[in-house]
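Exercise 7. Predict the joint structure of the components listed below.
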Amino acid sequence: MPEGNDSVVVTRRLTKVFRDFWLREKVTAVADLNLDIQRREVFGLLGPNGSGKTTTLKMILGLLFPTHGTISVLGRLPTDVRIKSRIGFLPEESYLYPFLDARETLDFYGRLFHQPRRQRQRRIDMLLDMVGLSSVAYRRVGEYSKGMQRRIGLAQALINDPDLLILDEPTGGMDPIGTKQFKDLIGVLAMRGKTVILSSHLLADVEDVCHRICILYGGRQRAEGSVSELLAKRNMTQITTEHLDDASLEAVRTQLQAANKKILDVTAPRDKLESLFLRIVQEAQDQRLATGGAIAGGEVAEFLRSGAPATGKEVIEQLVAGAAAADQTEIPQQKPQATHPSGQLAEESRRVIDSLTADQKGKDSAAEQAAKPAPPPLQQKQAEQSVLEELLGEEGSSGRGQ
Amino acid sequence: MGGIWAVLRHTFAHCLRMKVGVAFIILLVVILVVLPLVVKGDGTLAGKIKTFLATGSSLTALLLSAVTIFLSILVVTSDVQHKQIFIVASKPIARWQYVLGRWAGVAVFDAVLLVVAGGAMYAFSQYLRTQPALNTKDRRMVETEVFTARDSVHPIPPDIKSQAEQRIARLKEEGRYSRAIEAYQMQTGGDQARAEELLLTQIRNEVGAELQSVGVGRSFFWRLEGIRLAKEGDVQGSGEVTDMNLPAGLMRIRTSPRLLGRMVYDGPVKVNGVNAKVFALADQFFDAYFFPEDASLPTITALKTASKVSLTVDPTIQITYQAYPVTAPPDKVLRSIWQAQNPTTGLFYQEPRSDTARTPSTLTLSARLVDDKGRIDVSYVNMPFDASGAGTTVTILNSDIAVLYRVGGFEGNLARAMALIFLQVMFLAGVGVFCGTFLSFPVACLVTLAVLPLGMAMGFLTMATTLSPIEANPVMKQIGGAAVWAIKLLLPDLSKTSPTDYLVGGTDIGWGFLARTAALTIGLRVLVVLAGACVIFSRRELARVQV
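Solution:
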């Protein structure tokens, strides 16, 4: 694995062996791990419990020392204090001081970055607003729910506007609103050229936000690559359209039969539970119903957005517009270096449809054995709409007119 | 420095919000409030105040030490145990900065607690000071022996060494030396060098006893030098004339107990600037005696009953001593006459005394008996038990006689006493943080707690290791010597730096002593333990296996 100039984290044959009191080898937590995480990349570490994800992150942070192998973080050793000012870390649980309130917590961590008072206070205000804790900023963190603690934990990880954000199980304990905003935030940070390392059990989260993933098992690297490469099902095509009447459906079926293809399943698309939940909560907040807990956070803090490309601004505006409109959100697929997984999927979808309409000779019937496909990611909608129109032609248009 | 400051502030907030500090203050104040109500001491007001100061300062030091040990360990081990250190260590702060910040935070918290404790002690001691004294002597003790800061000088020690050598030379001339050595060689198994050492020790003891003992009807003489009286000099106040008999040269004046406490019977006092002598002393007033030429001065003759007068009292000095009779007197009381004289002016003072044998006694004198060069001549006449002339030889060791003189006020001394406690707890905080960097909370507490009694017993340990040199083989002797040296160097002698004896004895805690203690405590001991803590904390893994 070549180490480029843009490498943020590089590990070579990274191994961690835990020993007992008598220095007998107890367990090998990580073995011969080679990673090369690039700038602007959202990198996911996946694996079952005890697979070595957290141990790897702790070694990257200098909390654990490798038994063998090397780590380079931002070009230096993980224990080098100079790199810490460019790192943000959210641990698997919110290891915060329960006797401090949210504002004091952020103030303390801000001071560790030697931030001037005015800048610190401004960032604290923005972060508290972003994570939806402004109204409870003076309550002690020890009185917060787990989800609220995760939010303040996230805020502390971002107070220095880090170049490298390390997130260990970041959405654990968060409500769907927080999870959604969290994933949106990662998208924004990635667009600004930040590097994010994410460890999670929640595969949907990883799939939604990560460019590349590494799957660990027993401390060893089992698979590594881009999400699209690892998840692509090249023998099936999924099309989502507006409601089709029987005639339109028959026309599609005929068209596909002509191409020697079968329709395996026809259902009305369902809303995602996440979207429904977000819409209901947004409505409640619009009605200003009282709550003692966290509210949906505000827009991404200004200092975390500054310098983002114009497309990033659009994304933020869409986020601010409310979670209820999430279904309508369209995230441009502009990626300076790494390609966002949803963009790759849209491209893939277009390529498949193109080949489908061009090549009338079907080759594969394996799709019959496939399971019921999941609803497509929101970001694919525009691409798929154009594909459908292209596929249906005039008949499709008349169908919509009925 | 920013990182250390941030951790310091955080540690202070941590300590404050754990309620430990509040609990400490409440406990201390309750004790200090209750103490003055329940302590009795020896029945005198001075004894009561001394007991209060002794208990208050000891409790403050003890409670604060316990709080410091608990907090200094907790602020480090809690971070590791509850994993808050994961986030802190991911921020741009070096681990040595974290360690220093934790220590400094606890130290600042201690300083705040000490200010509160010291303030409470001062307030309650001042309250006790206003209480009625048992008698004039009691009041004098309160004012001149408790609410003061005194330094002391001892007489120049007798030259025991040269006199012992002379005696040995005489033994050799008389041909008795070799026989004496032969006798000791029977005890030492033929070791001549050891036998000579034992003989020399015995002769020195004999000479010492002779030079520091006096027979019946005979007297000791000491010249004490180096007395540096406080520059503030006279004590001034005011009073009210309650009665007068000027033809007899007498005037009764009511004044404050504070001023009365500083007067000495037959000592000088100035009334409206006119010289007089203290003729009688009571709890609320004194009688001034004017010589005829002074009694006829207009400033005195113009005075009437209820007239206000200004008073000036000379500062006083004390001679403390402890006498050991060879034969116990029948009533356990030793009779003597103490005489003191200013070597330059010839001013003379004499006082017959009856003191309990083997008990520390104090004689209060006018500071005018000390000349400008800081010298005073003192003599002790050993008087018989009764008119029959029977008596006993009395020994007063050189170390048991001293002149104490005021060099400062109680307030400054109390502040320095608190500073001594502060140095003690800063050291304990350093040890606590050090142990917390690699031990769990209970183990670290146990280890740090062990340091406290060890430090308190350092005086004994030092004496024990001095008296009983290791007689093992040379290698073991070297190792043992090095270990003892290291322990002495790293462990403060808390028995010497305890402020209790200073406060109770009204003894000045000198700035020089304080500076030396601070240099050794902060500049050496705390530095060493914190350096160790920084090295260990920087090299340890902060996370643990979770696979």
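Discussion. The interface with chain A takes residues 2-3, 5-7, 9-10, 13-14, 17-18, 82-94, 541-543, 545-547 of chain B (CB under 8 Å).
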